[in-house]
Each structure stands twice: as C-alpha cells, then as structure tokens.
Amino acid sequence: MFFIVRRLKEMEKNSGNQSLIRGLRLIEILSRFPNGCPLVQLANISELNKSTVHRLLQGLQQEGFVQPAITVGSYRLTSKCLSIGHKIFSSLNIINIISPHLENLNLDLGETINFSMRENDHAIMIYKLEPTTGMMRTRAYIGQHLQLYCSAMGKLYLAYDRPAYLKEYWQTNNDNIQTLTCNTITELPVMEKELDEIKKQGFAVDKEENEIGISCIACPIFNFQNKVEYAMSVSISTSKLNQYGIEHLLEKIKLTAEAISLELGWLPESVQN
After folding, report:
1. What does pTM read for this prediction?
2. I want to staple 216 with a disulfide (CB 3.0 to 4.6 A). Which of 88, 152, 187, 227 is the partner?
C-alpha cells in the first residue's frame, strides 16, 4: 500500500479538497492495523498533526467507517469498509483485468502465455495466448483441467496452500499421479523439496514434466488476502530456454504477475504489518 499512500499525497498537493484526501489516507493506514492504531501513531504515519487526525477520525466515525478500538485512544476500521471491499471484488472481471498485462507480455516475449484458476485439487486454464514468433504450439487449451503435481502453475497452488494440504492431495490423488515423462515428480519427498524451493524463489518451473520438449515458468497471482487463487506461466521450447537462460524471461513474468496481484488488492510483504 506504499504506492497508494504516495499517490494520495500527490493528489493532496494537487487538490483543493485536502480533507477528503487526508481522510482516505487515514483509512488506508488503518487497514494495516486490524486491532486498532493509536491516534499518536496514526498522526506520525500520516504526517499530520494530532488535532487534524482527531477531527478527521470524528468525521469518519460519524459516517460509519471508523470506530474506537478496545485500547483507549486507538481506532480501527468498521465492517462497512469490508462490505465495500467485497462489493468491489465481486464485480471484478478477471479476464478484463489480466488481458492487457498478458497481451503486453505476449508481444514482448513472443512466447505462449497461460493463465489458470484454482479449483479444488486441480486448476483450470481460463486464458491463453499463442506465441507471436515461431511455430511451437502446446497442447494446453482454454477450459482444460490441469493436474497440480506435473505443471508449473499447479505446483504453485500446492506450494502456497496450507502446509498439511500436500499430503492430503497426494493421498487423495494417488491414482492420478503418474509418470508422464522421465522428469515427472511422482514421489512425495521429492515434491516436498520442490515446493520448499518454489516458496523460497517465488516461481515454479515445469522441466518437461508434462510434455517433452516444452518447459514452463510460472509465477503466483496473490489476492487481497495474500492467497493464490490464480497463476500465470510462459511456455517455451526447452532448447530455446537453454539458449536464452531463465533470467531472460523471469523478471518480466514476475513483474506482470505482481502488477495483476496489485490490481486484485494484494499488499506486498515489504509493507505489510
């Protein structure tokens, strides 16, 4: 939310309605303190004097956006803010949000772009862009159900789920976990190590685990709850990936995933409290 605060400050400088901008700034700051924030600390963070903050809080409280917290002298947001947020997110059309970002990446890299959503023990391909250069085409298609254990996007869903989920998934889907290529991971201990590495590096790679000759690099899409409900990937021939190196693609894929996550309300960990 650092970017939002910075933008609000810029708006305040260029706007005659300072009270509105300052009130919105206080709401944004309070969103980081679910148990309440003391007035003094709120004044320090917002860079406003205590009397101004107190006056703004009284107005926000009157309109039902803020209420006193349990700790004396502290304030917190009300469920009215949550209600507004839910209305906003329920009206979001994910395809409208992602398409400009993925189209730009497709034109920039020239490779196949995939986007999926999580559904229980599998993922569903909901968006795909064919490569703009070369003749390589993958077997993936919109509407396809993707196994989690053998795809880059699927491994992201496994990695960012609750710790106990992997063993539950492995037991429930034991009959579906099959060796598709010589690189497919079918042993639970190996997958556990793989997912630990994915969490550390923030991306996943399908090393010809689903289709010989094709590699995929995937990044998670975080929502406002910091959960991974969506994922995106770039498919590329393994020979080309070896020629270019993963760093040629990874930075641009990560930046695209982060931009989409921010539109979904994600708060980067560096500024979360």
Report:
1. 0.69
2. 152
